[in-house]
Amino acid sequence: MVKICCIGAGYVGGPTMAVIALNCPSIEVVVVDISVTRISAWNSDQLPIYEPGLNEVVKQCKGRNLFFSTDLEKHVSEADIIFVSVNTPTKTRGLGAGKAADLTYWESAARMIADVSKSNKIVVEKSTVPVKTAEAIERILTHNSKGIKYQILSNPEFLAEGTAIQDLFKPDRVLIGGRETPDGLKAIQALKDVYAHWVPEDRIITTNLWSAELSKLAANAFLAQRISSVNAMSALCEATGADVSQVSHAVGKDSRIGPKFLNASVGFGGSCFQKDILNLVYICECNGLAEVANYWKQVIKVNDYQKNRFVNRVVSSMFNTVSGKKIGIMGFAFKKDTGDTRETPAIDVCKGLLGDKARLSIYDPQVTADQIQRDLTMNKFDWDHPIHLQPMSPTGVKQVSIAWDAYEASKDAHALCILTEWDEFKTLDYRRIFDNMQKPAFVFDGRNVVNVEMLRDIGFIVYSIGKPLDPWLKNMPAVA
């Protein structure tokens, strides 16, 4: 029986291994992690991450050929194929601070593999890593090999949170990069055979190591670039009276462009986009490509500008101050159908409003009160370290309360800010919400989910990203 071990039981490792186990009943799959809390959660009925369909997949194969364990050395030693899916946070100090990936956890995983291995291994990069990481890992393993042969493969993930299980079952492509040597090609084939249990062969792409690593960074950079492009247009739409939804619909009809990732919003979030672009910028700078680095930096600058612009709209619309005013925050996750808050635009928007002394009442159907308080007090990039190495949750932010539902969050509020596109926000009883709010009552829709005309008829003053401005908002500054 082929044995697979995955180091790292997070958003990538857990779901990916569950789907492999379900589709490959003849393969034993063990997910290992040093976090006892996280492994205990995987072994319980309350999984540590929320992802539609994940629970059902795990239930079907847990205890059969899918196992979760904290005994790293035993399972790494026994495995034929080792997936490494550990954190690769952005460095906060030293060379490349604020841009380069910190490979501390990767290096320690590689050294542990070298220490405990007694047989040849295929080591698969599953976390997002900078180009040439495979070469560094290869050196560590080779110099500590004790006669054991290692083949390093790059197998980047292209999952979208909220649809990760669907993406794993029906991927656009599976990308496997390896050395173009006889042993390297054999290793590529071994991993290809695993995916071939359910993925059509024409969707399994093989490349050299560097192309696979760079393809992941490039894919995320291109997607983020599209969001920043439409968000840049949304600012122009507001200035000219155009409607960004109509503009993006017309642009998306061009078959060369297509309609995906053209929804204007308060900004992109998630664990990958900003981190991967910063990584790309650093690699470009290291290779003397200053102009290319500056090009990609601008994608992040526009994203930051969009979040700042949103906060400035809120403050300037409400008589240029939100001090002491209650603002209901609708949604905290970076997108709907996930509880993930990593780099969510809501953090920067909330911090911006708190900086003007607003009182926030935050509601999100999937994010815990503790997580929200942690995110609002954590330093940038701290989220990307394993949970036990993150700062302990400090005292909560005094001006922040967590609401049980949207109606509680909006009661006696001066304004609502919609920051996640949860479907329930489209069907709320806005007449009831309006009646219970301070007047004038404002709605700032950062996701374009509400029916603007209906809300205006009720009596709300509505700001919707990239839409023609409410008469109230005209002639008010969009930027500080």
UniProtKB/TrEMBL annotation:
<dbReference type="GO" id="GO:0005634">
    <property type="term" value="C:nucleus"/>
</dbReference>
<dbReference type="InterPro" id="IPR017476">
    <property type="entry name" value="UDP-Glc/GDP-Man"/>
</dbReference>
<dbReference type="InterPro" id="IPR014027">
    <property type="entry name" value="UDP-Glc/GDP-Man_DH_C"/>
</dbReference>
<comment type="similarity">
    <text>Belongs to the UDP-glucose/GDP-mannose dehydrogenase family.</text>
</comment>
<comment type="pathway">
    <text>Nucleotide-sugar biosynthesis; UDP-alpha-D-glucuronate biosynthesis; UDP-alpha-D-glucuronate from UDP-alpha-D-glucose: step 1/1.</text>
</comment>
<dbReference type="InterPro" id="IPR036291">
    <property type="entry name" value="NAD(P)-bd_dom_sf"/>
</dbReference>
<feature type="binding site">
    <location>
        <begin position="8"/>
        <end position="13"/>
    </location>
    <ligand>
        <name>NAD(+)</name>
    </ligand>
</feature>
<dbReference type="InterPro" id="IPR036220">
    <property type="entry name" value="UDP-Glc/GDP-Man_DH_C_sf"/>
</dbReference>
<dbReference type="InterPro" id="IPR014026">
    <property type="entry name" value="UDP-Glc/GDP-Man_DH_dimer"/>
</dbReference>
<dbReference type="Pfam" id="PF00984">
    <property type="entry name" value="UDPG_MGDP_dh"/>
</dbReference>
<feature type="binding site">
    <location>
        <position position="38"/>
    </location>
    <ligand>
        <name>NAD(+)</name>
    </ligand>
</feature>
<feature type="binding site">
    <location>
        <begin position="86"/>
        <end position="90"/>
    </location>
    <ligand>
        <name>NAD(+)</name>
    </ligand>
</feature>
<keyword id="KW-0520">NAD</keyword>
<feature type="binding site">
    <location>
        <position position="342"/>
    </location>
    <ligand>
        <name>NAD(+)</name>
    </ligand>
</feature>
<dbReference type="Pfam" id="PF03721">
    <property type="entry name" value="UDPG_MGDP_dh_N"/>
</dbReference>
<dbReference type="GO" id="GO:0051287">
    <property type="term" value="F:NAD binding"/>
</dbReference>
<dbReference type="Pfam" id="PF03720">
    <property type="entry name" value="UDPG_MGDP_dh_C"/>
</dbReference>
<dbReference type="InterPro" id="IPR008927">
    <property type="entry name" value="6-PGluconate_DH-like_C_sf"/>
</dbReference>
<feature type="binding site">
    <location>
        <begin position="127"/>
        <end position="128"/>
    </location>
    <ligand>
        <name>NAD(+)</name>
    </ligand>
</feature>
<feature type="domain" description="UDP-glucose/GDP-mannose dehydrogenase C-terminal">
    <location>
        <begin position="328"/>
        <end position="452"/>
    </location>
</feature>
<dbReference type="InterPro" id="IPR001732">
    <property type="entry name" value="UDP-Glc/GDP-Man_DH_N"/>
</dbReference>
<protein>
    <recommendedName>
        <fullName>UDP-glucose 6-dehydrogenase</fullName>
        <ecNumber>1.1.1.22</ecNumber>
    </recommendedName>
</protein>
<dbReference type="GO" id="GO:0006024">
    <property type="term" value="P:glycosaminoglycan biosynthetic process"/>
</dbReference>
<feature type="binding site">
    <location>
        <position position="161"/>
    </location>
    <ligand>
        <name>NAD(+)</name>
    </ligand>
</feature>
<feature type="binding site">
    <location>
        <position position="33"/>
    </location>
    <ligand>
        <name>NAD(+)</name>
    </ligand>
</feature>
<keyword id="KW-0560">Oxidoreductase</keyword>
<dbReference type="InterPro" id="IPR028356">
    <property type="entry name" value="UDPglc_DH_euk"/>
</dbReference>
<feature type="binding site">
    <location>
        <begin position="272"/>
        <end position="275"/>
    </location>
    <ligand>
        <name>NAD(+)</name>
    </ligand>
</feature>
<dbReference type="GO" id="GO:0006065">
    <property type="term" value="P:UDP-glucuronate biosynthetic process"/>
</dbReference>
<dbReference type="GO" id="GO:0003979">
    <property type="term" value="F:UDP-glucose 6-dehydrogenase activity"/>
</dbReference>
<feature type="active site" description="Nucleophile">
    <location>
        <position position="272"/>
    </location>
</feature>
